[in-house]
């Protein structure tokens, strides 16, 4: 990197001094969201570190992040060219690739509209308001049956192992029009490898910043490449089957709708065909990948918090019993009527901040923020964890307390408080699955809490230590679960 002259009127970015070759990599440590939060107290909302030879700007503070990602959205909407991202979706990922603004925007629009139409689509059965609701209710039902089976045979279970299959099935339904059994080796093997993916894809992975490391034997990098290959092969096989059975008068799912878009585009002389068919159809890889890991991690954390805070679990159950009763299954339209559950979910997002940094951003041109000069092509990390634990924003941020989101008489969620929780990013690159994700986390939880009671096993204390990554997972725990009797008081 050349030393750039700072334009007049702008200041040079503050930050710690760094070592040759490795930069500040050691200070980052194994919990970068904590070490960078500490540094932000010293250097402010906008500062610079070096990872290897590369300068990286760290953004903290709600107002600063909002300024960068919304008001100056275009300046910060790029993605950096990172070694590990090149393996995701064959380098053609919508979320991780360095696609230029035009192509990225076109793909994002396609992804968004496919997702919207195939989640809000009317279901086959009249009792469901949309296919999303239908998929979730059916998967929750099969999850509960499966957990009962495991309890009978094993007496305990690893929640993530089962939740991840149920959640994957919801997005599989929308993307591929199919579901898999809880013992399907192909799917279960694949989705249970999510940890190996998120560890390497987290912000600050040394191999992304020190090129020499890319040539040394590296176990986690090997696993990462392997899971990406498995994942791509899995999707590729399904996509080929869709091409073979495609019928434009019967668009079955998101994969079909993307194939249809390619065919339509070829007939349309005015369309700008700067995008290969592969770049269109591979959008489905992103939707499937983003759609199962994030939501199953949320639900798995939710189960941990329910076990760690049995009083909260009881209150949530009472709320459902009172507002919905125990005779019918909760549905999406109950969401406005369950403020305690809504607060629990917000507090789960805030307290765990299990997505501590957004996917890294990159400046698309020379720009400035809070008076500091940021050159084009600078890698930028957004510290969501810092915002969710900022003492200026939250009272006792380290306390798990869903009540903080309720109004004084506990009957309504304080919307403004809720909006301060940052877990989906903001602005141009904000998550496109947010509405689905919030609905899905809500409905799975409402159904699970209505029907099940989770508990810690004697001799197996709960371990809530997060393991750093793009999404942070708790250690694998073994829990017990019991059906709630219908007439419980
Ligand atoms: C991007 C969070 C669920 C699809 C993102 C980003 C975050 C995020 C933090 C990056 C924002 C940035 O770089 O600034 C979450 C969380 C979820 C969730 C916490 C669940 C609780 C989903 C679902 C889907 C999805 C269900 C789709 C089915 C995407 C896509 C992007 C993205 C395609 C890339 C957007 C882009 O780069 O333009 N998400 N997400 N996400 N998310 Fe989600």
Automatic annotation (TrEMBL):
One of its GO terms (molecular function) is steroid 17-alpha-monooxygenase activity. Gene3D superfamilies: Cytochrome P450. It catalyses: an organic molecule + reduced [NADPH--hemoprotein reductase] + O2 = an alcohol + oxidized [NADPH--hemoprotein reductase] + H2O + H(+). GO terms for cellular component: endoplasmic reticulum membrane. It is an enzyme of class 1 (oxidoreductase). Its EC number is 1.14.14.1. Keywords: Endoplasmic reticulum, Heme, Iron, Membrane, Metal-binding, Microsome, Monooxygenase, Oxidoreductase. Its cofactor is heme. It is found in: Endoplasmic reticulum membrane; Microsome membrane. It is a peripheral membrane protein. InterPro entries: Cyt_P450 (IPR001128), Cyt_P450_CS (IPR017972), Cyt_P450_E_grp-I (IPR002401), Cyt_P450_E_grp-I_CYP1 (IPR008066), Cyt_P450_sf (IPR036396). Signal peptide: none annotated. One of its GO terms (biological process) is hormone biosynthetic process. Its main location: endoplasmic reticulum. Cytochromes P450 are a group of heme-thiolate monooxygenases. They oxidize a variety of structurally unrelated compounds, including steroids, fatty acids, and xenobiotics. PANTHER family: CYTOCHROME P450 1A, STEROID 17-ALPHA-HYDROXYLASE/17,20 LYASE. Belongs to the cytochrome P450 family. This is Cytochrome P450 1A. It comes from Crenichthys baileyi (White River springfish). The lineage of its organism: Eukaryota, Metazoa, Chordata, Craniata, Vertebrata.
């Amino acid at each position: 990197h050349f030393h750039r002259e700072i334009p007049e009127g702008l200041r040079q970015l503050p930050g710690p001094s760094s070592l040759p070759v490795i930069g500040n990599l050691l200070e980052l440590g194994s919990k970068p969201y904590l070490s960078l939060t500490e540094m932000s107290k010293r250097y402010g909302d906008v500062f610079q570190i070096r990872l290897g030879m590369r300068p990286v700007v760290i953004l903290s503070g709600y107002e600063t992040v909002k300024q960068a990602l919304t008001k100056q959205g275009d300046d910060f909407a790029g993605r950096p060219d990172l070694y590990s991202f090149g393996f995701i979706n064959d380098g053609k990922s919508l979320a991780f690739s360095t696609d230029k603004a035009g192509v990225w925007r076109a793909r994002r629009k396609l992804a968004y509209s496919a997702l919207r139409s195939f989640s809000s689509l009317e279901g086959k059965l009249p009792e469901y308001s949309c296919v999303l609701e239908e998929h979730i209710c059916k998967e929750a039902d099969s999850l509960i049956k499966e957990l009962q089976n495991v309890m009978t045979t094993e007496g305990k279970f690893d929640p993530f192992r089962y939740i991840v299959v149920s959640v994957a099935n919801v997005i599989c339904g929308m993307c591929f029009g199919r579901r898999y059994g809880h013992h399907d080796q192909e799917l279960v093997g694949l989705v249970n490898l999510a940890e190996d993916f998120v560890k390497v894809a987290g912000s600050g992975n040394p191999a992304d910043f020190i090129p020499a490391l890319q040539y040394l034997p590296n176990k986690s990098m090997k696993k990462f490449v392997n899971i990406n290959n498995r994942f791509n092969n899995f999707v590729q096989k399904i996509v080929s089957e869709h091409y073979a059975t495609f019928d434009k008068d019967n668009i079955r799912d998101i994969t079909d709708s993307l194939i249809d878009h390619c065919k339509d585009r070829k007939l349309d002389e005015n369309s700008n065909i700067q995008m290969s068919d592969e770049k269109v159809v591979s959008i489905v890889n992103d939707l499937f990948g983003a759609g199962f890991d994030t939501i199953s991690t949320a639900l798995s954390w939710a189960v941990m918090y329910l076990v760690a805070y049995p009083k909260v679990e009881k209150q949530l159950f009472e709320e459902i019993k009172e507002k919905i009763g125990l005779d019918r299954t909760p549905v999406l339209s109950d969401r406005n009527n369950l403020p305690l559950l809504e607060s629990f979910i917000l507090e789960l997002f805030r307290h765990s901040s299990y997505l501590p940094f957004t996917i890294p951003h990159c400046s698309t041109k020379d720009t400035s923020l809070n008076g500091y000069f940021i050159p084009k092509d600078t890698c930028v990390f957004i510290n969501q964890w810092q915002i969710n634990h900022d003492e200026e924003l939250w009272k006792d941020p380290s306390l798990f307390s869903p009540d903080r989101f309720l109004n004084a008489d506990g009957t309504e969620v304080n919307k403004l408080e809720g909006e301060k929780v940052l877990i989906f990013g903001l602005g141009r690159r904000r998550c496109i699955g947010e509405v689905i994700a919030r609905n899905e986390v809500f409905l799975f939880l409402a159904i699970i809490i209505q029907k099940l009671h989770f508990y810690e096993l004697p001799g197996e204390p709960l371990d809530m230590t997060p393991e750093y990554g793009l999404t942070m997972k708790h250690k694998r725990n073994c829990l017990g679960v019991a059906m709630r009797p219908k007439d419980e008081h």
